[in-house]
Structure formats: C-alpha cells, structure tokens
Write a structure and sequence with these properties.
- 28% of the residues lie in helices and 19% in strands.
- It is α/β, with parallel strands linked by helices.
- The chain is globular and about 40 Å long.
- The chain has a 7-stranded mixed β-sheet, sandwiched between helices.
Length: 203
C-alpha cells in the first residue's frame, strides 16, 4: 500500500493529538531519505533479503541501486557508464552488475538480493560479478557523507549501523508512478514503520 490523501487522514486520526502508533518496520534497518528530487528508500545491502527487495521494487521505480564508495567500486572493477560530458546527469552511475553464480536471470527479487549481498561482502572479488546486470551501483564520494546528495547519505546511514558501506536504494513513487514529494514521503515512512531522514537534513 502506498500513502494517499486518505492514508494521511488515517495517520492523523490514529491517536489523540495526531500521534501515530508505532508500526513494525516493513523492512528492518530501512529508512526514507529525501532530497530535492523526491525520496529514496534505503537499507543495508549486506542484509538484503528477497522480501526487502520485493518491497523496494513494489514501491519504487523498480530501478535498484547500490550506493557505494568509489574505492570499493574500483576494487571490484566496476567501471562508470561512459557518457559524453554534455550528457552527464551527475548521478555517477556505473555499469550494472549481477552476481556471477547463485542466480537465474538476475532480475528476480531473489537474484537481486543475492547480488546486493555479494556487493557488500568484504570477501568479494571482481570475478564474483558479471557485467552488465540488473543492479545499478552509484559511485559515492569517499568523504562528505553528510552532504546534500542522498546517495552519500544512504552510505552514511548503513555504515553508522555497523554494516559494510553499501546501501540498497531506489526512488519511491506513488500509485501514479510519480516521485513522492516530502509530505508523501513522511506518510510512507510512518505507515511502514520506517526511519525518516536519519542524517538530520531538512525535508
């Protein structure tokens, strides 16, 4: 279920004074981060499960990212997508990857969860991945994790919880397929029992 106007009303009426009763988290250790482009759902790649990835796909554009430090991408030999300077979006996409073994076509929630865990595993080597695939890493700065880009903030979030610095992330959308705005992101996070902007930047 995605937040809607009626859902927001239900949340406001959940308890006297508009307080919302705590809900079990739909995805453990997940959070909703906001930025000028909308909102993303993030959680540690190291603990990615098929259920968590399925939830992510259901409520997002379906494009599953792995936000990762630049040095880790280099160590795994995951190159940037080649683009002309005039066509650079500034998002720092790399080529997409799949796990080299243990998956089928690579597109299922089971397969993508496995690929995400491989990306986060400190023991992984370049040969543990094939290119292209169905998980799209994003190259993140080695520093300034508290900057404005949501991708670095996602890495900071999972790292601060003691996980390897690889964050699963996807853009949240509403029932019409449009990116969630700030108000809808708050409703979504409350309804699904998720942390909201844990880095502390304004919504």
């Amino acid at each position: 279920m995605k937040p809607s106007t009626s859902l927001c009303a239900d949340l406001d009426a959940a308890e006297p004074g508009g307080a919302v009763a705590p809900r079990p988290a739909a995805v453990p250790e997940a959070a909703v981060l906001t930025d000028p482009d909308g909102a993303i759902l993030v959680f540690p790649a190291a603990t990615a499960t098929p259920a968590a990835v399925h939830f992510l796909i259901t409520h997002s554009s379906g494009l599953v990212h792995a936000a990762m430090p630049s040095g880790l991408l280099d160590a795994l030999r995951i190159p940037d997508q080649p683009v002309l300077p005039s066509e650079d979006s500034g998002t720092s996409f790399t080529v997409a990857v799949d796990a080299a073994i243990g998956i089928g076509t690579g597109i299922s929630a089971i397969d993508r969860a496995h690929t995400l865990r491989v990306l986060a595993d400190p023991r992984s080597a370049p040969d543990d991945l094939v290119r292209p695939g169905h998980v799209l890493p994003i190259r993140c700065a080695a520093e300034a994790y508290t900057g404005l880009r949501c991708w670095e903030r996602a890495v900071a979030f999972v790292s601060s919880a003691g996980h390897p610095p690889v964050a699963v992330a996807a853009r949240l959308v509403d029932e019409a397929g449009e990116p969630l705005d700030a108000a809808s992101a708050v409703s979504f996070a409350l309804w699904h029992g998720l942390a909201l902007d844990p880095i502390g930047l304004p919504i």
